[in-house]
Each structure stands twice: as C-alpha cells, then as structure tokens.
Amino acid sequence: MVDLAFTQSLIYSTETLVFTILALLLSAYYRGFNHQYVKFWMLSLSALAINQLALACQSIFHDQQIGSLVDITITLVQQTSNYLYLLFLMLGIYSAIKQERIAAKLLYISIVIVMSLGAIATLMYGFDSQSVFNRFYLRESLAAFIFGCAFIAASFFIYSSNVKHFSGKILLAYCSLVGIRFVAYSFASIVSLTDDWFRHLTEYLLYIDMGINTILGFIMLIWLQGAERNVASTAINRAKYLGKHDSLTGVLNREQVLEKLTNEMSIADNKSQKLCIYLLDIKRFKFINDTHGLKVGDLILGEIARRLNQSLLKPKVVGRLSGDSFMYVIDYSNTHQQLTAAEHIHALIARPYEVAQQEVHLQCSVGYCNFPQDGDNADDLLQKANLALFQAESQNIQTVKFEAGMQSQGRRLLAMEKAIRSAITNEEFILHFQPQLNLKNNRLEGAEVLVRWQNPDKGLLAPGQFFDDIEALNLYSELDNYVLEKTCQTIAKWYKTYKRRVPLAINITAVEFQAPNFVSNIQYLLIKYEIPPIYLELEVTESVVITDIELVMKTIVILQNMGIKVSIDDFGTGYSSLAYLRKLPIDKIKIDRSFIMEVATNDSDLTIVKTMVELSHGLGKRVLAEGVETQQQLQLLRNIGCDAVQGYFISKPISEEEFTKYLKRK
Predict the structure, then answer these.
(1) Dihedral (C-alpha) 542, 654, 564, 491: value to the nearest 10 degrees?
(2) 0.70 cut: is pTM over it?
(3) d(CA 273, CA 466)
(4) Residues 21 and 56 placed together within one structural domain of the fold
(5) How far is residue 77 from each of residues 69, 70, 147, measured CA to CA in Å?
(6) Do 155 and 60 share a structural domain?
(7) pLDDT of residue 576
C-alpha cells in the first residue's frame, strides 16, 4: 500500500511539473500574441497542475482522518481545480474555434458555479466517515459524468465547426475518446463499484489518465502551430485577393480589370463577338463625402459595385478603376443593345441610396467604346472610353460614345491643362476692372473684377478664348482661388498706395461656392491682407443656387454675417427667378444685359426691368443693371429707380493701371 501511494505521488508530482512547464510555455505565447483562447488553455493547464499537486499530496497524506482539516483542504483544492481545469479547457476550445472573446460577466459566473460545485462535492458527506459510497459518487462518478458529457459536447462542436487545420481533427478525436472514457467510467462506477475488476481498472486508469493529460498538453501546442499556420495562409490568400480586387468594394481593381478585359477580348475574338466597354464616373461624389462623411461614401461605393456586379445584363467585367470611377463590360450584337446598356447603367446608379434614414440620389456620366471596332488592346480601349467619359463630363451629357476626333481633342486639352496650370503658377492671369456707377450720387460705387490671360505667346486673351477649356478641364476652382487672392492683394495694395478702398465684385462658380473650405479660405484671405469684409462682394449666378439651394443659402448667411456682400449675377436668365429672389438672403440684384439692350426701344423689356426694380426694392435689395451702352438707357434706368449701372457707356473693362486713375481723384 505504501509502495502504491509512493508510486501515485511520484506520478502526480511528475505530471505537476509537466503541466506547469506547458502552462509557462502557453503564458509566453499569450504575451506574444494575446489570443484569449491561449489564456484559457494556460489557466486550464495551471488548474490541472494544481489538481495533480493536490492528488500527490492526497497520496502522501493518505492516512489522514476523514473530515480532518488536511483532508478537507486537499480535497477542496483537488475538486475545485478539477472543475476549473474543465471550464477553462472548454472555454478555450470555444474561443479558439469561434474566434470570439468570452464576455467577462459570463466568465465570472461560470467560475463561481464550478467553484461552488467543487465545494459542494468536497463538503457534502465530507465529515461522515461512514458515507464512503456517497463521497465516491459525488467526487468521482458525478465528476466523470460531467467530464464525459463536456468532452462529447466539445467533440460535436468541433465537428460541426469544420475546423480546417489538422490539429482540429486531432482535438476532435481526443475529445471523443476522452468523453467516452469518462462516461463509461461513470456508469461502471455505479454498476460495479464493489467488484474487483473495477478496482483494478481504477489503478490502470491512473497511468491512462497520465498519458491522456500529457497528450492534451501537446495537442494544445500542435493547435497553436496549426492555427498560426492557418492564419498565415489566410493572410497570404487575402493578400492575393486584395492584389486582384478593390479592398473597398470587392470588385476587380485596375490591374485585374485590364487583365480580365484582355481575356474577355480573346474569348470574344475566338467567338466573333463584340464587346462594349463602359466607363462611368459618379457626379458630385465629393459633395457626398463632404456632406455625409467618408464612411457613408464608402458604403455607397460598395452598393454601386454590388448593383453593377448583379445587374441583369450579366457583365463580363466589373471593376473599380479609382475613386468613384467604374468599368462595366458587356457583349453585344447591335447598336440598340449598347444604348440600352447605357440607360441600364444610369438607372442602376439613379436608384436611391438609404443613408441614415435619408435618401441619397446620384447620377453618373458614361463614356464607352467598342471592341474590336475601336481597338484590340485593353489599355487603348480604356483610354478611348476615358476620352468619351471626359467629353460627357465636360459637356454635361449623360452618355458619349468614343469617336476618332476625340483623341486629338484630348491631346489638345492635355496641353491646354498644362498651359493653364503654368499660367496660374506664373501669375499670367491678370485682373481687369469694370467700374460701377451709383446713379444716386453719380460716383464710383465699385468695380467688377474680370480676368484676362497675358499669354507669353499669344498676347492678351479675352475670357472667351480660354474659359471653355477651363470648364472642360474642371479647373474653375483653381482659377477662382487665384482670382480671389489676387483681388485681395489688389485691395490691400491700393489702400497702402492711395489710402482708398474700392469694393470689388468677383464671380464665383458653383464648384467653388459649394467647396467645404470656401468660407474658411475667404476668412484667411481677409485676415492675411487686413481687408474689411465690406470691400469684397461675391457674385453668384442662378445656376449656382439651383444646384443645392439649402447649402447655398446657409453659405450666403455665413458670408453676410462676416460682412461680405453677395449678389445675384445675370438675374432673369435662370429658372424661377422670382421664387429664388424671395428665398435668397442676397444684397444686390444684377439685371442681365439681355434685358437692357432694348430697354429704350422695347416696351416689354422696359416693363420687365421696371418690375424687377420695384420687386427687388420691395424685398429690400439693391439693383444694378449690366450692359448699359447709351445715354438713353442710362436715363431710363435712372428714371425707374435703378441704383447702379455698369457697361461700356460708363467704361469698358480696364487694366489696373487705368483704373487707378479713379483712385487718384479726390
């Protein structure tokens, strides 16, 4: 008996050392990778080490009286550590497979339950020396049944989770066999507790369990290796996927679009089929990002990609080239199918997008070309479709098909873009000023700023010679910012030289007026050049207003609160002018020259202008008439109460040098 006790204590002590070392290895691994399941398995092996130490102590102090302090303490530690070992092992398996963190509240509740179970198993019948069978059933049979059920449940869980790496299959086999071992032992203990064969089985199980527990420790290490290999493999596969797909939308990226298009062209060529390559660009998408945020913009791009991918036309290629630009390729047999596909694309993009319980509406521009008619190279076809898209955007047309002349036009625009950007950098754009006369006191009221291009090769160019190119190249924002700063510089220079300030009016395009940093940029310039805001007037056309009246009104109010005047230019040429006039908090109305040309000879025009003046005055707004070219026109406007005028009769647009003559007068 002494030899058996010594042998058992030696086995348990050895296992204590083994599991302590394994727990330390897992602890080091956990500090390096911080996986929660590793922490659970480390705690599980630590609890198992404590359990084996308690069993070793139990073998050494086997002659202690039942119910003594030593007996109860050792048994309490052994039972509690046994259930904690099982709990942390099962939690680790769940966390490892599901890759989910266990909630702290659930963890604490589970620990309390298993420790309570260990305490009950220890204390119930623990002080009654006659209750040998009850103690055995409570501490051994019940524990074996719980362990068996837990391991069998774990095996089903692992099987249903379909773990990919090989260590998952090892753990599945281990849990199944161990579960059967514990369940069989539990039932055998109830049926044959007093039989000799059961006593011998219990002695043999000591060695079997030693092997089982040791195998478990190494399975954990194998799992860690397999899991990390699987993570590495997943990362490599994901990197390969991202190398071919756009990470935001999941569709092909630019490189793979060209590769896939080349393959589809080869297939189409072999089958004598034709392909249509569409490029689409989302209109005003920057405004969506600025208004709703980048996250919403990303979600919308993902939805656009999904719609294109799942469209009824079953596209051959769908990819995101950059930003809000997508490619869409179909095969076709006639021209009607090309036009139908373009309409289909517009319909897909135009469907409302639900964002924070609001509907966002978008439109797109589409340019397209054909294979093999327009080329047999993917890069060449992409370039030609891009030229068609450029035409669609610059001319504000929904859909444009590539035509041969577009290439030369594209090259010309590229050269022009370089020249215009260079002109801005070299300050070749100069300001001219058209004086505005106050009809109430016959004095200079201000001037409208107009821009000219002092081209080193072509001389002084009027706006009509380069504005169309600026619009086509979408460079209005750069030019607006340039003119704004030059105007502020001029106001500051005049004050320093002549001690006079003249209000200057600048035309602002829709693009710049709706820019997020528009107001802050003006504030910066006013502070930088020490200009009182009343000497800066911004002119906007009705086309600016109708793009987004709420945003425009908000911006105008902010500018007015700063002291900057805002006027409506070319009034009367837009849509619903009177309705906008009533809503907009503007300071001045500039009547378009088309109404002034025949005001002295056409009664209808005179009536319209008179009505405009009266209406504007009724709403508390000043009126300036543009395009005054005769004394008769001037006198009529004075008679009907117009506040100010500008035009060739007063002065044509003049250079800064000529305009400063007005400033020298006292």
Answers:
(1) 160
(2) no
(3) 43
(4) yes
(5) 12, 11, 17
(6) yes
(7) 45
